[in-house]
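Sample log: M36 family metallopeptidase.
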Amino acid sequence: MVFSFTKSHGGLLLALALAFPGVSVAQSGAPSAQALAYFTAQGERQGLHGGDATNPTVTSSYFDQSSGLTHTYLRQRVNGVDIYGAVGDVHTDRSGKPVLMHQGFVVDAARLAPSAVPTLTPEQAVSAAAKALQLPKPVGLTLVRDARAADGVLFNNGGISEYDIPVRLLYFPINGQLKLVWDVNIAQLDQQHHWTARVDAHTGQLLDKTDFVVSEEVTFQQITARALHSRPAAVTAASANRGGLGAANSMTVLPVPVEAPSFGVRASVPFPSATSANAAYSPYGWHVADPRATVAGTSIFPGSYSRLAAGVYLTRGNNVAAYDDSQNTTSGSGNILSNTNSPDGGATLDFDFPFNPATSPKLSSPAIITNLFYWNNMLHDVMASKGFDEASGNFQYKNAGTQGLGGDYVRAESQDGSGRNNANFSTPADGQPGRMQMYLWDNALRPTFTITAPAALAGSINYGTADFGRSIATLPAGICGTIVAVNDGVSGNSGLHGCATPYLNTRDVSGKIALIMRGGCAQLTGGVRTPSSFAGKVRRAQQNGAIMAIIIDSVATNTVLSNMTGTDTVGIRIPSIFLSGADGARILASLRAGTPVTGCATASPDYDGSLDNGIVSHEFGHGISNRLTGGPSNSNCVTQQYLPNGSSTAATTQCMGEGWSDFFALWMTTRVGDVGRTPRGTGTYVVGEAPTGAGIRYKTYTDDMAVNNYTYGVVGTGNYNETHALGEVWATVLWDLNWQFIYRNGFNPDFLAQTGGNNQFLKLVLQGCKLQVCNPGFLDGRDAILRADSLLNNHANSALIWTVFARRGMGKSAQQGPRVAVNGYPNGLPGLTGIVAAFDMPTGVRPVTLLNPAATPLGTQSASAINGSLVSAYPNPAQNVLTVQAQLASKSEVQVSLINLVGQAVISTTTNVTDVQRGLELNTSTLAAGLYVVRITTSEGIFTTKVQVKH
């Protein structure tokens, strides 16, 4: 197709050349003149005038193979300078006909815009932004790429940013005016924030900032307040050991859809081959050593990335590089080029590593990183199969096609040392890597020291931990021994402070647990000063042969526990714990009375977020919604607004990003046999809950209104001004809809397929993200899904979608209020305003009966409708083998039959319900071609579906 432009849009040729360097307009999926003229005309009908909609910048435009649409995303421009946040979109079908447009342009922009000549230089803007963001002053700032200020210049990192620093001149809408600003992009070296900051181009004042990094809960305490803490089910020994599962060209992981070790066991999963279903979505394979990653005899990766010449075969590929970013590898370095912080599968690519959930996850790091690598790759392929592909900005080092930018694989950082009890994902614009940071999580079960003798002291007491020496969590059975009070011969309390070595009682301490009192070493006889540090005391105990050190508080009445830190900790190999003064005094009194004391120290190991595949999916989901909404070159269209003088916790948009991410997590971990009525928690593993736990959200996800009664009316009230709480409401309605699609179209466990209600609905959700307005509200999201269904399915599910949204208060008469708060908050008031829930249907649209096969029907649906939604038979048509799956329960064995048109059972077998839930294969090679009925007879009733057999 050849694109032409009218005179009024001729300036777009330059914008397109900048947006798609080296790619012809025809190849790029660029907008037609018809689409742009339509956008301008519609904008003027909506109140724009004076050239407001003329000659906008095309930020991105691409042809969507999955839908046949061309999606074009625009930004308003005046005086040759773009207006930040003034964005629009127009979408056209295969013929070039516009089917949808939105615009959020500034009315009368030419009148409002001041001169486009700044006072500050771009260098001064970087310094002003760094100061406002409380970052160090840039050092050695030099220009890397020069250009027109309105097109953006590029500086080196100035010692303050992980990447080079882009700076661009923009207009920023504020208080009904347009201010000239410099937009400065700084990725903090600690990887906690990737800022885009707007500073006044004349004064340097920070006017606005947004963050490409989306984090989860602020503190673990907020989570534990909502979580019960029962230990997860133990992982079987077979899943914990290496040797029986490994094979060449494979990974031992928790395979999709296993959510965490508490949900199932690990299995050996092969790398996808060139003939697998994944090949269409990962054309260069998953690993740098894949033969497909070599083009014309040359690897698509630089040598420093692949390290193949050195014989190192790490968890790196075109879609993701997964590696250890713990404190031991300098947290925040993000050094993917090191060959020591990723597991090595060897030349045979056998990524089978030991995993023991009873010990510290640091000991199982290779297995955990492999799991993180696998899940990121699966998420890449599954989401690509539903429309998050190269053209729309997915994460890949090299793209196989001509649309979209490469160089942006996911940097998946396991056991990241820059935080705990959290996770985050950074989504800069297409062409820059996404980063997933996964942290360790505190185990809510306090570590204990159990006194086994004498009987008068027997029992468990809590202890404080040390950040040096060996962690007791690395010892499966803990550590046990006899306690001996030390005597250094020089300090007070009979030498109990352990200030000098050797001890007078070294022989007694050797092989035992050393009891030492805190402090007391600042000044000794003869003026010799000895450090009182915890680490120094423990080192001296180690030098005297102790197997562990117990430090007790020096105040015998003190009940407070301390966690011990140290600086001079090199060479300390034994574990140590801290006991309160009260507990220590009881032990010391027994020893001084001549009564031996024995005991054992045990610890509950941390949980690793990289093993909670729901959280991994959630984080990846931020990359999806941020790249799809507003186009891949604009990552500020699903964002929480950060205000220079305000809290970032309160939402200033309706913040649906957390909701999409929770939905993706639930979707990726849905198992055969699940039903929508069953409550699902989020993050149950990392807070130590069983799979049936509540997790880290206020309510569990279920379509049962008695358990989860969220409606649109809660948005902006109480806790529901916070981003994650708002996300719960949005994810709930998506989850409801997902199950209604499954009940009508079946569940397909092949997540790469296009059939099955689950796959069909996920595609609608992704298409909705592409079609919706920048920074949408809930009703915008609703309308986008409806429009996606109209374009992809000819309105086939319109009534169903309306029914489910209306049930949750997002009916036709619902009101959304401001999409984005003005200058922080609408009308100067905190929170979200103007939201009105309504439960009505549009005129002429009849509500459909909602299906609920797991309990009392939500309506008066027919039995046949329920039955047909529960049974899946595929492939359909079948040839030699038909697989039958069903989400059913039965108190007895089930009978599976294939019935011909005259009512004869041509195949019949009796089996247990688990086999049917997993998928039962029937041999249809000898059957005559034609229509058959699959009938499953259970203790709960008879369930059927239709299938064709062809040869």
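Observation: The chain is about 20% helix and 20% strand.
Observation: The chain has a mean pLDDT of 84.
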